[in-house]
Write a structure and sequence with these properties.
Blueprint (H helix, E strand, L loop, with lengths): L20 H23 L4 H22 L44
Length: 113
């Protein structure tokens, strides 16, 4: 029995990468951080299991940190950003910038009375 041409299960994904560039960079930085943490822990005199646990914790922390630090491209759909003149017609006026209310005068606790 031959699959139908319109069947979505029969679609070949030969040219799609396994990981995106963003994910590859994050995992590479996480691996680099984990390796450095593990090597430094071993050189500090700790045992191998301790160094492996340290490296694992460093990897997890680094992946979370670099994922929040490095922005994604708008094409991936994770983060949508408007480009200049996108979604804006010439008839509409831009809202004026709101100014923050003036700060109340700070009182010095050592003021003269």
């Amino acid at each position: 029995m031959q699959p139908r041409p319109g069947n979505p299960d029969h679609v070949h994904h030969e040219h799609e990468p396994l990981l995106t560039l963003h994910a590859g960079l994050i995992f590479m930085l996480g691996t680099l951080t984990a390796t450095c943490a593990g090597v430094l822990t071993l050189h500090g005199g700790a045992s191998r299991p301790t160094a492996l646990l340290t490296a694992g914790a460093a990897f997890a922390g680094a992946v979370m940190f670099f994922r929040s630090l490095i922005a994604t491209s708008p094409r991936t759909g994770e983060q949508q950003q408007l480009r200049p003149n996108e979604g804006h017609t010439g008839d509409q006026q831009a809202e004026p910038a709101r100014q923050a209310p003036p700060r109340a005068a700070r009182r010095n606790s050592r003021s003269c009375r």
